[in-house]
Design a protein that fits this description.
The chain is an alpha/beta fold. It has 14 helices and 11 strands. It has 2 domains: 177 residues, Periplasmic binding protein-like II (D-Maltodextrin-Binding Protein, domain 2, 3-Layer(aba) Sandwich), CATH 3.40.190.10; 112 residues, D-Maltodextrin-Binding Protein, domain 2, CATH 3.40.190.10. This is ABC transporter substrate-binding protein.
Length: 329
């Protein structure tokens, strides 16, 4: 859950744009994780206010983010490039107007019981980890996440077909299942893996720092700011204000990486997560110097997303139609 520091929108969502009178919009987010730090920063550092735009947040499940956007119940998404490309492939008319991170901070954590049983530590060679996972039971939130695990395993001649993978829906279930040995490992984005490690439940053995396929430069845009082409045409000023506020938030994060200010902002919206976990999670994300995107980055994103079977490798993502820097400063 998001902390009370952010205003949550009701189910309907709303939008008004009135020229110099400012704008009110709703942004959909898929949960409280460090990927949406730019939204929190834009709120706490008053970047939205400085651009004369009032923002409400609506916490959505990942499966309904795209439908919420296309229905107009939210006007923007702080979403993943993976989900965006899936939506573009389906012709939903979504438009990315800013990049807020590069890559995704994935972490694969094994239970302490499994680690002891297989004599593994956080410094064990990844080949040893992969081989030990044969015959194990893991946890994953989606087929695409399981495919991301396979990108790691395939480097060592192993596949998730050689193990059981349970479908898990929330961080709470991840940690509980790991603690009770119902699963031997799980993979998801930070801070959940590091939180499990801090609690003594598991050990993070693979992340974007030691798995080449998960490195930011091999993923392309991670989290992005998304609207629809139709909304952008009707309310270009609101889109410009929102996109530039997000751009300033990203620039602030990039310029203040490692600062207690960032950790404090994240902590205010992430009750119960240790400060050192939040700090390390933030450090694992590649924060761009600004929100601008390039054709090469989107080509990388298409390649990565096709490798995890979300889209086909020949999919085209077009500047001006699917993504644009036109609203940025």
């Amino acid at each position: 859950m998001l902390a009370a520091g952010l205003v949550l929108a009701g189910c309907g969502g709303s939008s008004s744009a009135s020229g110099s009178g400012g704008s009110s919009v709703t942004i959909g987010v898929s949960g409280a994780n460090v990927n949406i730090l730019p939204v929190w920063v834009a709120q706490k550092k008053n970047f939205f206010a400085e651009h004369d735009i009032k923002v409400k947040l609506d916490v959505l499940t990942p499966t309904v983010t795209s439908s919420a956007l296309t229905s107009g119940s939210v006007q923007f998404l702080a979403g993943s490039a993976k989900n965006f490309l899936d939506a573009v492939d389906k012709g939903t008319g979504e438009l990315t107007v800013a990049q807020t991170s590069v890559g995704v901070p994935l972490g694969l954590v094994i239970s302490t019981h499994f680690a002891k049983e297989h004599h593994l530590t956080k410094d064990s060679p990844l080949s040893d980890v992969a081989k030990a996972m044969v015959g194990s039971t893991g946890g994953s939130s989606s087929e695409s996440t399981t495919a991301e695990v396979n990108l790691f395993l395939h480097e060592h001649g192993v596949d998730t077909k050689q193990m059981k993978v349970a479908s898990l829906s929330s961080p709470t279930i991840y940690e509980s299942a790991l603690k009770t040995n119902r699963i031997d490992w799980f993979c998801t984005s930070e801070p959940t893996p590091l939180q499990a490690q801090a609690a003594g439940t598991g050990i993070v053995v693979a992340n974007s720092a030691n798995v080449p396929a998960w490195e930011p430069q091999n993923m392309g845009p991670g989290n992005i700011t998304v609207t629809t082409n139709s909304y952008a045409k009707k309310h270009p000023d609101a889109v410009k204000r929102f996109a530039q506020a997000m751009q300033e938030a990203v620039q602030y994060i990039h310029d203040n990486e490692g600062s207690t200010a960032l950790t404090d902002i994240a902590a205010a919206e992430s009750p119960g997560i240790p400060l050192d976990v939040l700090k390390e999670s933030i450090s694992e994300i590649d924060w761009p110097a600004n929100g601008r995107m390039t054709p090469a980055q989107w080509a990388t994103a298409v390649k990565f997303t096709s490798q995890i079977d979300v889209i086909k490798p020949d999919m085209k993502v077009t500047e001006g139609t699917d993504w644009t820097n036109a609203y940025l400063g």
